[in-house]
Amino acid sequence: MSRDKLWWYLALPQLLLDEQLSLQSEIQRQQPQVLCRSDGQRARTVVQANTAARHAGVKLGMAEVTASTLVPELQQRTYDEQREEQVLQRLAQWLHQDIAQIALYPPQGLLLEVDDLQRLYGDYAGVQRQLARRLARVAVGYQIAAGYSPLVARILAQVPQLSFEPMRAAKSELLEKLRQVPLRFALLPAAQQQQLENVGIQCLGDLLQLPVGELGARFGRAMVAYVAELQGELLPPQRYYRPPLKFSERLDLMTEVASWQQLLFPLRRLLQQLEAFLQSRQLSVVRFTLLAHHRDQSQTPVRIAFALPLWRQREMQQLVQLQLERQQLATPALELSLRADAFQAREVTATSWLPAQQDATAQRAEQQQLQALLGKLQARLGTAAVQQAQAQNDWRPEAAQQWQTDLQTAKAPSQGLPRPLWLLPEPEAIAVHEWQLQWGPERIQTGWWDGEGVLRDYFIAVDALDRQGWIFRSHEEWYLHGWFS
After folding, report:
1. Which of 166, 125, 129, 179 is nearest to 8 (CA)?
2. pLDDT per residue as tens digits for the range 201-227
3. Mind listing the pLDDT tens digit for each residue in 4-15?
4. Is the sign of the CA dihedral 44, 48, 49, 54 positive or negative?
5. How far is CA 232 from CA 6, 21, 147, 150, 192, in A?
6. Which domain holds residue 190?
7. More confident residue, 370 or 102
8. Cα–Cα distance, 381 to 372 (Å, whole number)
9. What are phi and psi of 207, to 5 degrees?
10. Keyword Nucleotide-binding on this protein (predicted)?
11. Does residue 1 carry a pLDDT above 50?
């Protein structure tokens, strides 16, 4: 049986408090905590409360003074709507991995267009399972409702006693539940709600029974458009969320933190968000910057670089942890942020039954494993402690390569001519009669342009101990420059 197109709405009634609780230890989360605000006219009131506070008798809308008197150990913080909107954007970015069409309703709501996802996940039940798995990883409390229009989904998500399974909702069922909704949940401006109550309308069912002409005459065109949305006859366009081109996120640590090691737990949340950003764009990150923000508005930056482009949170966490073990904070941090703009497109590795292509795939896998090992060594020992040879366009052996810490672009020296694996720091004078020449000469005459020109004839030779060396003659003098074995 065909169904009407559905929108889902996620109502997140205490999103900011959930974010703060997720950054605390298990013992801290058990303490009663509330967020309070004032509208400028009245005393501060409770707008969000955790489970421990509610069990102790704290209710939403209760005066802050009353709540603190009722629960002396109550932890009170100021509600910040702007911060909650930032958390909402982070959640949208997290869900964008699965759902492309997400509209933000700040500060506590997300509208999801999920109708087309049925083909990917089988049906609405499959979409809901995937959504539940994704939300379980961010530890946020939510209420979800379906609607045949965005407005209907938003209204039903506010009424817990009318909750039901979204994948089973048909328009007739939704409309019947909508008629039962009290007018206080109608999402109408206060003035319009008061007008309706003055004429005896107590629920949306009463409103839907009125003729459209009477609605327009008594309450204006805005009310006519509102009822058309309730009936699904009018669907206003939505402004869908699009991930930013660069990644920049910031977390409030709630209390001062004195070391980078203590920041590893909140850092996991930032890396989780970075993984979602990279996954939605099919990118990997090469490097990023961590910043600890202090009470005096100063910042302590730590630049993190990877030998191999990464995108998974667990892989980044391991390397970042190794690098932070060598760092110290001069002063405690109140906030932590992560900024990244150095990305690479992911390379698709295709398998093949052809032997030659299988060998190439195996070589790439071995190279990636080697780069991953080098990345861990750099993270543990420091970037300068692990270096790789980079070939240079110079015929002088001592200038033919240089050592660099960038392990991604390094190339092995050319193997076109025989060269020793061990080159001495400086050539050593030798007596040529003690050597037996095996191969040569190879003349190298270059470097005249920089004042360090050379004129040498190189030979491969064996000494009295059967060691194979690389020797050369310059101005009738003989020197040993390296060893082959």
Report:
1. 166
2. 999 999 999 888 888 888 889 999 999
3. 788 999 999 999
4. positive
5. 11, 38, 9, 9, 20
6. 7-31+73-230
7. 102
8. 14
9. -65, -40
10. no
11. no
